[in-house]
Structure prediction request, 732 residues.
Amino acid sequence: MAVARILFTLPLPEPFDYSVPEGMTLAPGAYVAAPVGPYDRLGMVVDVLGDEVATGRKLKAVTAVYDVPPMGAPMREFLAWVARYTVTHPGQVLSMALRARDGLLPSPVEVRYRLTGKLPERMTPARQKVLDAFRSDPKCPKVSLNDLLLSASDIALAAEVSSGVVRGMAEAGALEPVEIEIDLPFPIPDPDLPGATLTAEQAEAADELRASIQQGGYAAFLLDGVTGSGKTEVYFEAIAEMLRSDPAAQVLVLLPEIALTQAILARFEARFGAPPAPWHSGMSPKDRRRTWREVVHGRARIVIGARSALFLPYRKLRLLIVDEEHDTSFKQEDGVTYHARDLAVMRSKLEGGQVILASATPALETTVNAELGRYTRLRLAARPGASRLPDVELVDLKKAPPEKGKWLSPVLERALIETLANGEQSLLFLNRRGYAPLVICKACGERLKTPGTENWLTEHRYTGRLVCHVTGYSIPKPTHCPSCGAADSLMGVGPGVERVAEEARVLLPNARIEIFSSDTAQGGEETRGLVDRMATGEIDVLIGTQIVAKGHNFPNLTLVGVVDADSGLKGGDLRAGERTYQLLSQVAGRAGRAERPGRALVQTYAPDNPAMEALAANDRDGFLQIERDVRSELILPPFGRLAAMILSAPSAELVDKTALEIAAAAPNGEGVEIYGPAPAPITVLRGRHRRRFLVKSPRTVDLSAYMTAWTARLKLPSQVRISVDIDPYSFL
Ligand code: ADP
Prediction:
């Protein structure tokens, strides 16, 4: 009797042993059900051993094995590596790979009926109506009657008869039941459809990628091209080559925002004649199950998704593309914390496949890896055709401030008026949702916060509510100050996109002005609608948060105004300067895409900041050099390692007491420095008090192993929770 070692999708530290029943064959990677306590649970076989390990033990038996190909070794190694690196239980990581577990089962079927051509012996008016319903079905006029398949309920509805009549006709042999799978496979992409005619530098980059794919094995590339230089067109060529050269190969394209996915799905469909398999959190359970099933069977050839698509159980993932690789939304902050770009590189290494990181503003980590020769850098320096990069001008708000109570400087106002007069479009960028980021009482000076926390409430005029962007807490805007009771005394302070829109409407009363933020474009439909209206020129001025920064091509957009360039520089985040530079150059890059030259006006109180100077001089590499020097001096990533530990408890006393015990339990580590415990910047979240440690070490230290050793020593009260974040990006 063989023994299967099974890892369950539960937060357990180890796999368990089960006996394999007679007649069942199991391989490592097989998906199985087996009893844990009173229930059968989903698990994966990590190993199959001979019966010697069973001697003298009473093992429960595996209940069932799912009829799908077992998970391959590279994916299994990847999951184990992620668990170790992120300091998480392997079962928790496995459950990320099994998010749509009903995809393990075949597609559900539905019974449909078709005409057999035979008439029932006994004809009734009701039966005649059924036959007529087929003849008049408007769904598929081109399908021959004998091929038309209709469900019993559709027939009953169209013929105005009961479903009993339909069943009766099937029994009489006039209709034939046919089982149809509900989840359809994805159409097969065609790599040989024509792509764009590449420019010389695009062709050179595409050739290098194609050659690498033909050679095979692991290789990593940085596709470093200015916004609009055709990076997408170039990686399309790599995808085509991969599909052509290996009929079983799968390709994954990771994208930072769902909003962007919508427009790019259509580009994929145009290039490959078939839509790719999507994967993101906004999909229905049915669509998720379909993508998951097609991926596990190896039938989905191109998957396009958010960071979690990295954990789908690919059979043969040979090419991975991380578009906008610098984007911080690739960092998962909750649960298992990981950075999808870094994991994508590891995934490719384990698979022996290729990975392409694409960006106009690569992260410092990526730049350093390219300089060290770990990634091959492919450069695209120019936009194709007549399209030029926009001129960036800094508007020094100390010298030329807006009028009191306004947010647009006279220079920007003039530019907006001119652009409208020329029949061209403008984009105003402000990374703050709502009307005002802070609400205070004019009578008593109270700042309105989420109860029990230090988080300010943002005023949203559109919905008439005050909203906390950290916790999601929200209330209708009160008529009286909750602190002193004064009537009509609450006042919004500072600008959000809604307030800038209000100002723009006064300045340009005849312009068509719309707001683009996660409040106004919540779903794919709304986002697509807005993007389409902007692309077809139905909007004159678009006012948006960072959601507008990414990927959209608006051919008639010639002016970008950055309302408050400094907002991202505040706060002690080590990547604040880098992120500001990336975001603003992405936003500026929206201007001047087609034949018309673009300009970007950047309002700042800090024109001497290196990020602003580099932006104006279009000197990305100079800026990266300064960032690099600072981080190398301070031994910060990528020159050193960081980890965070956050602990939380229902009371401040308990969290403080436990924090001291945790500090005392820290192991010794060569060169490891521990800062804290300190109150986390978000001190109270959903009723829990939070403290944090920041741990810093040289690159030579295995910080994951250190954190594992530390947390293994802890005996925490049950009300205390800790989470570890290796290489944290958010310091909240
Ligand atoms: P990036 O990904 O670098 O921002 P894209 O691939 O989105 O750039 O290209 C920007 C725009 O230029 C797109 O509309 C794209 O179709 C177009 N484009 C890029 N390269 C070519 C080319 N060689 N010929 C024609 N159009 C191109």
Summary: The chain has five domains: 3-97, 109-181, 200-380, 391-432+495-628, 640-726. The first strand starts at residue 3 and ends at 8.
